[in-house]
Write a structure and sequence with these properties.
Number of domains: 1
Structural class: mainly alpha
Radius of gyration: 20 Å
Strand content: under 5%
Distance between the termini: 33 Å
Shape: globular
CATH superfamily: Amino acid/polyamine transporter I
CATH architecture: Up-down Bundle
Largest sheet: 2 strands, antiparallel
Amino acid sequence: MVKISNWQLFWLILTLEISMSMWLTISPAIQAAKQDAWLSLILAGIIGLAVTLIIIKVCQQHHSQSLIELSQTLFGKWVGKLISILYVATWYVVASNILRIFAEFIQQTLFHNTPYWIISACMVAAITFITYIGSIESIGRFNEMAGPLLLISITITLILNVPNLHLSLLMPVYYDSGTQSILKGSLSNASFLGESILLMMLNPFLAKPQQALRPALLAILIPSILTVMTAAMVVATFGNVIGGSVYFPYFSMVRFINVLGFIQNMDVWIVFIWIFSVYVKLAVYLFVNSYGSAQLLGFKKWRRMIFFTSPAIFVLSVLPRNLIIALDFKNEVWLGYVFPILIIGLPLIMLVMGKLRGTQAHSR
């Protein structure tokens, strides 16, 4: 069986978390908490770290099992399969939404006259190739190049945007928002950080699962810090009204960079790098969906499922709906049900059940 190192695991999680969270969660945080959005995102980072800690502990208890196998071990065959179906179905929908948002964003920014379904088809072909040929190991190796490039690019854009900051726009702190608004603003980003639940499918492929805690938590911490900084910079650049009204505030801020009339048009470079990060994210989702579906159906050769999974994700992504409806999945289904139940509730129950079973076995 192919294995991924802790270093590859770090970059995989970091890319998974940063590729969409900085694009889609800053605006909701600003809408809810106004200039205190950075406080919301600090809270979101703490929640994300706690959730990831629980997930890693569950993985370490059952380091040779995927979520599909673990669910049946802890809850029995039929209940476990039902729980697994909920996870896999959710990941199909999430992957299709990511693909749709990506295709529409690329269409709006780069290829105005190209139908979004052609962009989606090209991306599906690319992720199908790397997943079928090399599995999660090749995805991890590719991301060892794409991940650092993404991180460096984001850091450079934040530094270049410093001259555009008006720190007075961050004032007053807490007075205009309050605890409830700050908590509400944290939920979107915290739920995105909860994508670390995918670790429970990657668990059997970790070379050193007992040493996965540190790289996993670090991979959550760094995107959280960058998102906090980005939110503060967006508000300090545009104010909370404009910053909370655009879908992609980070991208809008990058477009605003102009250093001495020489360094500008950074948005083209950022989009180019972002394409690689979304490529990795979708490839991981394709692998997880294919491997999980194969385990549910009892197929030993999981690669065969790729030829069902990739068309399914593509078809779901091109169903008639606009970008706003795609984003509503996050606001209604993801935040209302997936995050509290599938990402927080069930892993916590699994952790408790695993500890109880371990205690019982030790007492015997």
